[in-house]
Protein backbone atom coordinates (compact mmCIF):
# COMPACT_ATOMS: atom_id res chain seq x y z
CA UNK A 1 0.00 0.00 0.00
CA UNK A 2 1.33 3.43 -0.82
CA UNK A 3 0.79 6.70 0.97
CA UNK A 4 -2.55 8.48 0.83
CA UNK A 5 -1.69 11.70 -0.98
CA UNK A 6 -3.65 14.73 -2.08
CA UNK A 7 -3.54 16.04 -5.65
CA UNK A 8 -0.47 18.13 -4.83
CA UNK A 9 1.47 15.13 -3.46
CA UNK A 10 1.14 16.01 0.24
CA UNK A 11 0.14 13.31 2.72
CA UNK A 12 -3.58 13.47 3.63
CA UNK A 13 -3.77 13.15 7.39
CA UNK A 14 -7.03 12.32 9.18
CA UNK A 15 -7.38 14.25 12.43
CA UNK A 16 -8.35 12.47 15.64
CA UNK A 17 -8.64 13.43 19.26
CA UNK A 18 -7.69 10.71 21.69
CA UNK A 19 -8.77 11.01 25.28
CA UNK A 20 -6.68 9.00 27.71
CA UNK A 21 -8.22 9.03 31.17
CA UNK A 22 -10.04 12.25 30.25
CA UNK A 23 -6.98 14.12 28.90
CA UNK A 24 -7.36 15.11 25.23
CA UNK A 25 -4.48 14.58 22.80
CA UNK A 26 -4.77 15.64 19.14
CA UNK A 27 -3.26 13.21 16.63
CA UNK A 28 -3.18 13.08 12.83
CA UNK A 29 -2.85 9.74 11.02
CA UNK A 30 -2.25 8.65 7.41
CA UNK A 31 -1.69 5.22 5.81
CA UNK A 32 1.83 4.84 4.55
CA UNK A 33 3.63 1.82 3.04
CA UNK A 34 1.73 -0.92 4.87
CA UNK A 35 1.58 0.93 8.16
CA UNK A 36 0.64 4.39 9.36
CA UNK A 37 2.35 7.66 10.07
CA UNK A 38 1.04 9.60 13.05
CA UNK A 39 1.75 13.25 13.74
CA UNK A 40 1.77 14.10 17.44
CA UNK A 41 2.45 17.82 17.71
CA UNK A 42 5.58 18.37 15.63
CA UNK A 43 6.74 14.72 15.82
CA UNK A 44 6.10 12.05 13.17
CA UNK A 45 5.91 8.40 14.30
CA UNK A 46 5.72 5.25 12.15
CA UNK A 47 3.02 2.95 13.52
CA UNK A 48 2.14 -0.65 12.74
CA UNK A 49 -0.82 -2.45 14.28
CA UNK A 50 -1.64 -6.15 14.15
CA UNK A 51 -4.36 -8.20 15.83
CA UNK A 52 -2.77 -11.23 17.50
CA UNK A 53 -5.98 -12.96 18.48
CA UNK A 54 -8.68 -12.45 21.05
CA UNK A 55 -8.22 -9.04 22.59
CA UNK A 56 -4.42 -8.96 22.10
CA UNK A 57 -2.82 -6.57 19.63
CA UNK A 58 0.76 -5.79 18.71
CA UNK A 59 1.47 -2.07 18.49
CA UNK A 60 4.79 -0.97 17.03
CA UNK A 61 5.84 2.66 17.26
CA UNK A 62 9.04 3.55 15.39
CA UNK A 63 10.02 -0.13 15.40
CA UNK A 64 9.50 -0.70 19.15
CA UNK A 65 6.79 -3.36 19.53
CA UNK A 66 4.52 -3.84 22.53
CA UNK A 67 1.69 -6.29 23.09
CA UNK A 68 -1.43 -4.90 24.71
CA UNK A 69 -4.96 -5.99 25.38
CA UNK A 70 -7.72 -3.91 23.87
CA UNK A 71 -11.36 -4.27 24.83
CA UNK A 72 -14.15 -2.24 23.23
CA UNK A 73 -16.75 -1.21 25.79
CA UNK A 74 -20.48 -0.77 25.12
CA UNK A 75 -19.98 2.99 25.45
CA UNK A 76 -17.74 2.94 22.37
CA UNK A 77 -14.67 3.65 24.49
CA UNK A 78 -11.78 1.23 24.80
CA UNK A 79 -10.09 -0.32 27.79
CA UNK A 80 -6.37 -0.78 27.15
CA UNK A 81 -4.33 -3.11 29.36
CA UNK A 82 -0.64 -2.28 29.05
CA UNK A 83 1.74 -4.16 31.36
CA UNK A 84 -1.07 -4.72 33.88
CA UNK A 85 -2.14 -1.06 33.91
CA UNK A 86 -5.64 -0.42 32.57
CA UNK A 87 -6.34 2.86 30.82
CA UNK A 88 -9.63 4.17 29.39
CA UNK A 89 -9.22 5.37 25.80
CA UNK A 90 -11.68 7.28 23.66
CA UNK A 91 -11.01 8.07 19.99
CA UNK A 92 -13.00 10.63 18.01
CA UNK A 93 -12.07 11.69 14.52
CA UNK A 94 -12.60 15.29 13.49
CA UNK A 95 -14.84 14.42 10.53
CA UNK A 96 -17.14 12.25 12.66
CA UNK A 97 -17.37 14.97 15.31
CA UNK A 98 -18.26 17.62 12.71
CA UNK A 99 -20.70 15.25 10.99
CA UNK A 100 -22.44 14.43 14.28
CA UNK A 101 -22.85 18.13 15.05
CA UNK A 102 -24.12 18.87 11.54
CA UNK A 103 -26.53 15.92 11.61
CA UNK A 104 -27.81 16.93 15.03
CA UNK A 105 -28.40 20.45 13.73
CA UNK A 106 -30.09 19.05 10.60
CA UNK A 107 -32.31 16.89 12.78
CA UNK A 108 -33.52 20.01 14.59
CA UNK A 109 -33.93 21.90 11.31
CA UNK A 110 -36.11 21.39 8.25
CA UNK A 111 -36.43 17.62 8.68
CA UNK A 112 -35.30 16.75 5.16
CA UNK A 113 -33.25 13.71 4.10
CA UNK A 114 -29.99 13.25 6.01
CA UNK A 115 -26.95 11.86 4.19
CA UNK A 116 -24.83 9.39 6.13
CA UNK A 117 -21.23 9.56 4.96
CA UNK A 118 -18.18 7.56 5.98
CA UNK A 119 -16.46 9.61 8.70
CA UNK A 120 -13.04 8.13 7.84
CA UNK A 121 -11.36 5.99 5.20
CA UNK A 122 -11.67 2.28 5.89
CA UNK A 123 -13.52 -0.92 5.03
CA UNK A 124 -17.20 -1.61 5.64
CA UNK A 125 -17.26 -4.67 7.90
CA UNK A 126 -21.01 -4.89 8.48
CA UNK A 127 -24.14 -3.27 7.14
CA UNK A 128 -26.67 -3.56 9.96
CA UNK A 129 -29.68 -2.23 8.00
CA UNK A 130 -31.48 -2.79 4.71
CA UNK A 131 -33.11 -0.39 2.27
CA UNK A 132 -36.47 0.85 3.68
CA UNK A 133 -35.64 -0.21 7.28
CA UNK A 134 -36.86 2.13 10.02
CA UNK A 135 -34.02 3.31 12.28
CA UNK A 136 -33.87 5.25 15.53
CA UNK A 137 -31.49 8.16 16.07
CA UNK A 138 -28.27 6.78 17.50
CA UNK A 139 -28.92 3.22 16.25
CA UNK A 140 -25.84 1.47 14.85
CA UNK A 141 -26.23 1.13 11.08
CA UNK A 142 -22.68 0.33 9.85
CA UNK A 143 -19.40 -0.93 11.21
CA UNK A 144 -16.30 0.42 9.48
CA UNK A 145 -12.80 -0.83 10.22
CA UNK A 146 -10.05 1.77 10.17
CA UNK A 147 -6.55 1.20 11.54
CA UNK A 148 -7.63 -2.29 12.71
CA UNK A 149 -10.29 -0.74 14.96
CA UNK A 150 -13.97 -1.32 14.31
CA UNK A 151 -16.09 1.82 14.52
CA UNK A 152 -19.88 1.88 14.77
CA UNK A 153 -21.56 4.43 12.56
CA UNK A 154 -24.86 5.52 14.09
CA UNK A 155 -27.97 6.91 12.45
CA UNK A 156 -27.88 10.68 12.97
CA UNK A 157 -31.68 10.88 12.87
CA UNK A 158 -34.72 8.63 13.08
CA UNK A 159 -36.29 7.67 9.78
CA UNK A 160 -36.26 5.26 6.85
CA UNK A 161 -33.04 4.07 5.16
CA UNK A 162 -32.85 5.02 1.48
CA UNK A 163 -30.14 4.98 -1.19
CA UNK A 164 -28.10 2.32 0.61
CA UNK A 165 -24.76 2.06 -1.21
CA UNK A 166 -22.51 0.47 1.43
CA UNK A 167 -21.78 -3.25 1.21
CA UNK A 168 -19.64 -5.50 3.43
CA UNK A 169 -16.03 -5.61 2.25
CA UNK A 170 -16.33 -2.31 0.40
CA UNK A 171 -13.43 0.15 0.79
CA UNK A 172 -14.66 3.67 1.56
CA UNK A 173 -13.04 7.08 1.64
CA UNK A 174 -13.78 9.80 4.17
CA UNK A 175 -17.05 11.59 3.32
CA UNK A 176 -18.17 8.84 0.91
CA UNK A 177 -21.99 8.45 0.96
CA UNK A 178 -23.22 5.26 2.64
CA UNK A 179 -26.98 5.89 2.71
CA UNK A 180 -29.66 8.53 3.16
CA UNK A 181 -32.12 8.59 6.05
CA UNK A 182 -35.51 10.11 5.29
CA UNK A 183 -37.21 11.31 8.47
CA UNK A 184 -40.73 9.99 8.92
CA UNK A 185 -43.52 12.49 9.42
Structure, explained:
- This protein is mostly beta strands.
- The protein has 2 domains: 14-93, Glycoprotein, Type 4 Pilin (2-Layer Sandwich); 94-182, OB fold (Dihydrolipoamide Acetyltransferase, E2P).
- 8% of the residues lie in helices and 54% in strands.
- The strands form 3 sheets. It has an 8-stranded antiparallel barrel with strand order 1-2-3-4-5-6-7-8. A 4-stranded antiparallel β-sheet has the order 9-16-14-11.
- Strand 5 (56-61) and strand 6 form a beta hairpin.
Could you list some keywords that capture this structure?
single chain; mainly beta; Glycoprotein, Type 4 Pilin; 1 helix; 16 strands; 8% helix; elongated
Global Rg: 18 Å
For the record, give the distance between the C-alpha atoms at the N and C termini, rounded to a whole number. 46 Å
Number of helices: 1
Q: Judging by the overall fold, what is the CATH architecture of the largest domain?
A: Beta Barrel
Helix content: under 10%
H/E topology pattern: EEEEEEEEHEEEEEEEE
* Contiguous uncertain segments of 5+ residues: none
The pLDDT mean sits at 81
Please give the CATH class of the largest domain.
Mainly Beta
Amino acid sequence: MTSEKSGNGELRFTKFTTKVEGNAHPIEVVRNNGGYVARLGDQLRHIEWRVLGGDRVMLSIDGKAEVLRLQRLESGKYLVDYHGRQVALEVEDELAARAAKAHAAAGRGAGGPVKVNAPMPGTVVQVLVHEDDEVAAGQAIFIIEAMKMQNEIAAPAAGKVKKLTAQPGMAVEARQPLCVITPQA
